[in-house]
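Handout, page 2. Input:
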Amino acid sequence: MAIHLTKESKILVQGMTGGEGMKHTRRMLAAGTNVVGGVNPRKAGRTVDFDDRPVPVFGSVAEGVDATGADVTVVFVPPAFTKAAVAEAADAGIGLAVVITEGVPVHDSVAFLAHARRRGTRVIGPNCPGLISPGQSVAGIIPADITKPGRIGLVSKSGTLTYQLMYELRDIGFSTCVGIGGDPVVGTTHIDCLAAFQDDPDTDLIVLIGEIGGDAEERAAAYIRDHVTKPVVGYIAGFTAPEGRTMGHAGAIVSGSSGTARAKQQALEAAGVRVGRTPTETARQVLAALDAGA
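Output:
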């Protein structure tokens, strides 16, 4: 099994005919992902060949869903059009919308996330790398060749750290890796993924990657304490960040002691989570936790 994405998932790509859409659609197909179509109203009816794999272009998400039974969309449209693209996907009955686009205005994110929630569509992102269930499917820009299928679940705010932990633990492998994005408002949270991994019989251990700013990791720690029985290993990016400065992601805003890496580490450790100080140390903590459970 996996969470949110399996080999059975049928994927549309909104913005497939753009530069980033073309590049990453090709990579998704090479990884075995079942990409069933693209969406571009100006190029409807055309077919794009990806290394001898023809992929049709539809004029709308609804047309794509009707023709293919698609249940996932990956969104590669400019920020100004992202709100409309996600709303269109939700209205078409798509179950999962993976929003890669960065730079989406927060008020747009709030609007399309509320609309998607009303329609029963899960959103991952915006400003995220997407997710991968190794050996099954990729929805987004996560490299498929740096790890293998296994029994670790990973949820991360950071795309780069997602890739690094995948590589560090490549000999063990992952059930699913989810990059939820680092914006202040995102559609899927650490807690959402923790709950799904807890219920997934093929996930034995969970890796949680956070970063300075906000209180998402503290809330995740409280959830772990009360609801998660599987071992959890954590890493918080930003231990060396200077105090009082906004760093990197739009959500990495620290006020006083609130939102610091140290405060998040303390909350997670109080919930029984092993927390590494570096990605490599975090990988070693995962190995130790797995050995302890063997």
